[in-house]
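Re: weekly structure request thread

Next one in the queue (194 aa):
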Amino acid sequence: MLKIGLTGGIGSGKTMVARIFELLGIPVYYADAAAKTIMNEDESLKALIIEHFGKAAYTDGTLNRAYISSIVFQNKEKLALLNSLVHPATIRAAEKWMLQQQAAYAIKEAALIFESGSQNGLDLVIGVYAPKSLRILRTMQRDTISRDEVLKRMSNQVNEELKMKLCDFVIYNNEQQLLIPQVIALHEKLLKTE
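Done, posted below.
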């Protein structure tokens, strides 16, 4: 079974692309959602987060995402620290999940595949590309945050053009090309690659 990564910058539409793959019968591991669950359920990770970010990191045993975001998106060192705590646990969980899949290929959807080094455990990586202006607009609408907040988050990710060069395949979600036909064509290619 092929282990495929699916990545793209904030607002690129990688989750939408992942859902299309799911409709085609391909299992998808959503790393960002899994990380949130792991941060709430892994007691040793919770203890480390509290140790480094204070008791306010959790409210009634649940991650205080607003508090953590207010710290890490203002401070690259704190973001790197949080990632160094969370990424290993999330990567291990994804690897375990991959081993349980029975499809021709399975997908790990994650914003930070290259940043976390998790591409090393994958056979191929698909990038989802959208122009910066469109990604900013989508993220502002989706997360109801300001343009400045979106730009701060973008500054913590690998440059989008560089990220796409690192990918084996690129799907364009730029509102100029139809998305579903691109995903279906790639799906058929991946089935033959197996």
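The first strand starts at residue 2 and ends at 7. The mean pLDDT is 92.
Next request, please.
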